[in-house]
Amino acid sequence: MGVVNVTPDSFSDGGQFFDIDRAVAHGLKLVAEGADILDIGGESTRPGKKDPVGAEEERRRVLPVIAGILRQAPQTIISVDTYRASTAEAAIPAGAEIVNDVSGFTWDPQMLPLLAAVNCGCVLMHTRGRPEEWRDLPRLHGDEVVFMVARDLGRLSDQALKAGIRRQRLVVDPGFGFGKRYEENYPLLAGLGELHQLGFPLLAGTSRKSFIARTSSSSSQTESVERLSGTLAAVTASILQGAHVVRVHDVLPTAAAIRVADATLSATSTENVHTAER
To answer: Greater confidence, 275 or 196?
Structure first.
């Protein structure tokens, strides 16, 4: 899943693709580099953000980009990154096939009824509080974060199913960095495989997150190199833990890392079969 942020203030690439034509060109480039899905968002959810973008402005940003990409590459699978039902409702007839909601369908009470009424994929992401609250949240210890995420995703997915969203339309995302402090993301990454017990495909979004930059920082590297190198390691770790979808900014190098991780998993599966036969 390639990221297209049509925003002036996203934490990693804010402003680079705020222009509609540049956003469309970037999305097409990511598809050419191997993205299976484009995730298009019109509002930053960076840590500390307090002032939300209005719904009308969010739609003004994302709808022309969806239209522009599908005009030139009509087979592209589009995901709209929004927690607003009104934006999702406008994006689906415009061509979006997936709604990626960072709030786990909780920040807009109309989101669940909307998603139950339409036929699209749904990404249910875990978040702990809102961006302006993250710095003040109590610290978690040990594997407490894995337990919390599994518990909350179980509860939220049950609510989604009861609202009428079919199970096969749901993907869950543990929400790396969303209300998790630096040291809390690594137990979550290490325990990602435990979330398979929920029975849904897993999406992992570690790309360029601050916990990666902090871990991989080196005086001999630029920040962009640090975040890319660390991202490739985190993506590989996610796949080895069984992630089905990875959401990334840098598609071309990530695609190569994915091939290596998949080859490793394939070899592991073959070895397990041979061991069982013996």
So the answer is: 196
108-125 pLDDT, tens digit each? 999 999 999 999 999 999
| Number of domains comprising the chain | 1
Q: Which tokens is 111 given?
A: 């989101």
Starting at the edge strand found earlier in the chain, the sheet holding 2-5 runs 2-5, 37-41, 77-81, 96-101, 121-125, 170-173
DSSP assignment, residue 11? Answer: T
Angle separating helix axes 85-94 and 55-72, nearest 10 degrees: 20
Residue owning tokens 């191997």: 34
Catalytic (active site) residue 247:
yes
Residue whose tokens read 């989604």:
160
Alpha-carbon distance 206 to 110, whole Å?
Answer: 28
Average pLDDT of the residues in 199-214? 94
**CATH code at 138?**
3.20.20.20
Q: What's the CA gap between 104 and 122, in Å, rounded?
A: 10
Are β-strands 96-101 and 121-125 bridged in parallel, bridged antiparallel, or unpaired? Answer: parallel
Rounded distance, CA 148 to CA 100, Å? 21
d(Cα 260, Cα 250) in Å, to the nearest integer?
16
Catalytic residue among 214, 247, 259, 278: 247
Q: Does residue 141 carry a pLDDT above 90?
A: no
Active-site entry in 169, 208, 209, 227: 209
Q: Output Rg (C-alpha) for the chain, integer angstroms.
A: 18
Task: Determine the structural domain holding residue 157 and report its residue range.
Answer: 2-277
Answer yes or no: 50 catalytic: no
Q: Look up residue 253 and give its amino acid.
A: P
Residue from 73, 113, 19, 254 nearest 99 by CA: 113
